[in-house]
Structures are given as C-alpha cells and as structure tokens.
Design brief:
- It is a single chain.
- By secondary structure, this protein is α/β, with parallel strands linked by helices.
- It folds into four domains: 7-137, Rossmann fold, CATH 3.40.50.1390; 176-268, Putative Large Serine Recombinase, Chain B, Domain 2 (Hect, E3 ligase catalytic domain fold, Alpha-Beta Complex); 285-347 and 413-470, no CATH class; 359-403.
- It has 14 helices and 15 strands.
- The chain has a five-stranded mixed sheet with strand order 2-1-3-4-5, with helices on both faces. Strands 8-14-15 form a three-stranded mixed sheet.
- Strand 4 (106-109) and strand 5 form a beta hairpin.
- Helix 6 (176-190) crosses helix 9 and helix 11 runs antiparallel to helix 12 (383-402).
- The longest helix has 34 residues, at 121-154.
- It is extended and about 115 Å long.
- The two termini are 50 Å apart.
Length: 478
C-alpha cells in the first residue's frame, strides 16, 4: 500500500514590491513547488505576504492565517526560501513554535538541506539564534540607513526612494508638467482657495496623483508642505539652512513659507482633539489592499426617509485599491463588538483595588464584647468558653483600631470593563486581543450585511486568572 504524501504549505514574502508585479514571490513559488516535489509532498496551501515587512510582529495577514491553518492541522510541513522570509522578530517565532512544536510541523528551506524541527532542543535553539540575528541585522541596517540619509542631506542631495512629485527620476531636474501643477497649487492657496477645491478640479480633469490615482486632501497638503519645493534641505523635520540643495526648485522660499503658514494655521483645523472618535478606524483593514479603513460619510437611502440621508461608513481610501471596500460604521461596530465579547468577554483585563472601611465591623465587635461580658455575670455561664471568646474579640478590636481599613482586590473581565470604558480604552482592549481584522468587499447584488465579510484573527488564548492574582500588587493586562 502506497504511503499518503505529506501535505506541504508554501509561505512567500517580499518586503517591498515597488513595481507591484510580484516577480520575487513568483520565483519563491516556483522554488517552493520544486522543493515540495523533491520531498514527495503535495502542496495544499500557499500563503503570500507580498509587499509586507516582517520587522513589526504580527503585522502580516497571510502569516496569521497560516498559523490558524497549522493549528487546525491543514499541513504537515512548511516551505520557505529562507527563514528571514518567515520571521524576523522573536514574537513571531514564539507564535510559530507554540503551534509547530506540538503539531510536529517542520520548516524546509530552499537554500538549506536541513529541515528545522522546533520540537527538538537543537531546532528551537537554531530558530532562536536566527531570530536574534535578524533583529541585529534590522537594527544595523536601520542605523546605516539613518547615517546615509543624514550624509545625503548635508550634501544637499534629495532622499532616496520614489522620486517626489514635480521632479524627474534623477531627483535633480524638474518634470515641467508636474512642476507647473505645483506652482499652480501654491498660487491658488496663496490666493485664498481651499485645498478641497484644487483636489476636485484636478480629479475632474483626470490629473494623476503622485501614485497615479486620484488626488486627496491629505496627498495635496503633504505635497505642498515639502521644503524641497523651495530648494530647502531638511533632515528629520529640521531645515538645514547652511546646506544648498542640488536640485531645481519649482517655487521660491517666500512662497513656500507663506503657504505653509496658511496650511498649518490653527484656525484651519476642524478639530483640536487628536483622539480617536470611532471604534474601528485604523484598526479594521481593507480585505483588498490591507490599508486601514477610515471613517467617511456618504448620502444613501435609509428606511423611513423619503430623501437621501447621511450614512457614516468605514471606507478604504487607497486610490490604487481595486476593491473599494466600504461598510456602514454602526453595523461593523456592532458586529465586531458582539464577536469580541463572545470570544473574549470572559477574559480578565485587570485587578481592581478598593479600600474597605472597617468601622461597621468595629461596632459589631464592641457589641460582642459587651454581650460576652454580660453573659459572664450570669450564674450558669460557661466561663472558659466565654473568656476565650472575649479574648478573641478584644484582639480583633485592637487590630481594627490599629488598621481601620483594608485593601480588597477584585478581578475585572473584558465585558465588565467594556461596559464602562470610553472609546479609547475600548480600542486598546480590541488591539490587545487582535492579530488582524479585515473586511472584504460586498458581494454582487447583496444589500444586507454579510457577517462573513469580516475576518478576525485573535491572539492566543487570554490569561486565566488564579487565586494568586488576587494578592498581587501590580495590575495586569490579559
């Protein structure tokens, strides 16, 4: 009888895909399939975190999905090009080992002949060392990049990366068409026009934004506030006045500073409160492009009203996203809150410290002392027992007089705290229990909200409190 082939999964990742074509991950796919064939394994899952960095832990949706499938026993081995494609942070390694070790899942690398078995002490040691090496390399790379950026700034050279709007790819000479648009925007702002009016005009004329999509208020404002527009060199927000820029400038410094004063004036701000006002803004992600959903407003048909009414949404504002995810804010808030409290409402979030005043108990003890004293005067009194009881009451009275209050600890569940929490604390609670929250596009022809559009990946099981937690002095967060 022929043995059943092992089930393999392939995990692919590329930190930055500037062209958006995924050539590197496609090569990882080919290499992974070849290795699976060499191992006699059948590929049952492919996970693709293209254009996703692994520097921050728990920041990759397909990585999170892969962990869930591993826990469900979907595959027996995982194929990657190198370990640094799979993880770079010790936190991600902890998540991997917690699932892969009991499941006996091995990791096979295209560029290594030795599989990584985290169930063995040696395998776990190698994985841990690689995680520390990755952290070291990331920090070294970051330090070198900062040194390079600082040196380029002091040489008057423009920063690396995609060339800014208004310049050619050499970052020295102006793109005449884009530079004229920059000058137009400065002239109109200084003439008293709003950014919204400029954005509407340019989008109506199909003027492409820096990334080729539609213009937004934020994109235009960010473009106008660049010191480089006036030939000013800046580094980490500080203008280097003694450094001469090597590039051509579309506007003069006086125009730049005048426009900046207008655009950053406090009275232009609609709100001085930077705190989040909506539960899931910036937390929920677009299922298409993985960008955070933002709060928005539109006009729509509402039951009970003849005229179109304002409808508050969470919406993907990425102009390059093809899915255009949007969902009513109240509906998504309600759905996520219900699932969150169903899933984690029982978990403990903190110990609550209260002070109990013992005056009432002291009064009870005084009454007891008087009662026992009166009983001792009776002829048939049990003198031995009453004397012992009197001594106990007097000791308790002395303790109460010395310590008239006592500290009492109680454990607070997520549900209990949620009911009393403000929006910021609710967002903190959600973030502490979430790995990822994505919203997919509505299906064709569907008007009613479909809960399956919302995919939630939770963190590992929350902390289970014990009796010992009642005596600890430091609060904890589950």
């Amino acid at each position: 009888m022929q043995d059943t082939p092992k089930r393999a999964a392939i995990y692919k990742r590329l930190s930055e895909d500037r062209d958006g074509v995924g050539d590197n991950v496609a090569d990882q796919d080919r290499g992974g399939r070849k290795l699976a064939a060499d191992l006699g394994a059948e590929v049952v899952r492919i996970y693709n975190d293209n254009d996703r960095s692994a520097k921050a832990p728990r920041s990759r949706p397909d990585f999170a999905q892969m962990l869930l499938n591993a826990e469900d026993g979907v595959f027996d081995l995982l194929i990657v090009r190198d370990l640094d494609r799979l993880y770079r942070h010790p936190t991600d390694l902890e998540d991997l080992s917690a699932i892969f070790t009991p499941k006996g899942i091995t990791v096979h690398q295209e560029r290594s002949t030795h599989p990584l078995d985290m169930s063995s002490a040696q395998g776990l040691l190698v994985a841990g060392l690689m995680a520390q090496v990755n952290v070291y390399e990331l920090r070294q790379k970051s330090a070198r990049q900062k040194d390079m950026n600082r040196a380029r700034a002091h040489q008057g050279v423009m920063h690396r990366g995609p060339h800014p709007y208004g310049w050619q790819s050499d970052r020295l000479t102006l793109n005449r068409v884009e530079a004229d648009r920059v000058r137009e925007a400065f002239k109109r702002v200084l003439g008293g026009e709003s950014l919204r009016a400029i954005v509407n005009d340019w989008n109506a004329c199909d003027v492409p934004s820096p990334k080729g999509g539609s213009w937004t208020y934020a994109t235009l404002k960010q473009m106008l506030l660049r010191p480089a527009n006036a030939g000013l060199v800046s580094y980490q927000g500080t203008i280097l006045r003694d450094v001469e820029a090597q590039w051509e400038a579309p506007v003069d410094p006086d125009s730049y500073y005048a426009a900046k004063a207008l655009l950053t004036a406090p009275e232009r701000r609609k709100s001085t409160d930077n705190r989040a006002k909506h539960l899931l803004a910036g937390i929920a992600l677009c299922g298409g492009c993985q960008n955070p959903l933002k709060s928005a407003m539109t006009l729509g048909n509402v039951a009970g009203f003849d005229e179109r009414q304002k409808v508050m949404l969470y919406r993907c504002t990425n102009p390059e996203c093809g899915t255009k995810v949007s969902v009513r804010r109240d509906v998504l808030d309600r759905e996520v809150t219900k699932r969150f409290l169903d899933e984690r409402g029982h978990a403990y979030t903190a110990r609550v410290k209260t002070t109990e005043h013992l005056g009432e108990r002291l009064s009870e003890v005084e009454t007891g002392i008087r009662s026992v004293t009166a009983q001792l005067a009776e002829d048939d009194a049990d003198t031995v027992a009453l004397v012992e009881r009197l001594a106990e009451l007097k000791r308790e009275r002395a303790e109460l007089n010395a310590n008239p209050t006592r500290t009492v600890w109680s454990l607070l569940t997520v549900t209990q705290e949620w009911e009393k929490a403000g929006i910021e604390r609710k967002r903190e609670l959600l973030r502490s229990h979430l790995v990822g929250l994505t919203v997919a596009r509505r299906g064709k022809g569907g008007k009613a909200f479909d809960p399956t559009r919302v995919q939630i990946v939770w963190t590992e099981d929350p902390y289970d409190a014990t009796e010992d937690d009642m005596t600890k002095t430091d609060p904890f967060i589950a």
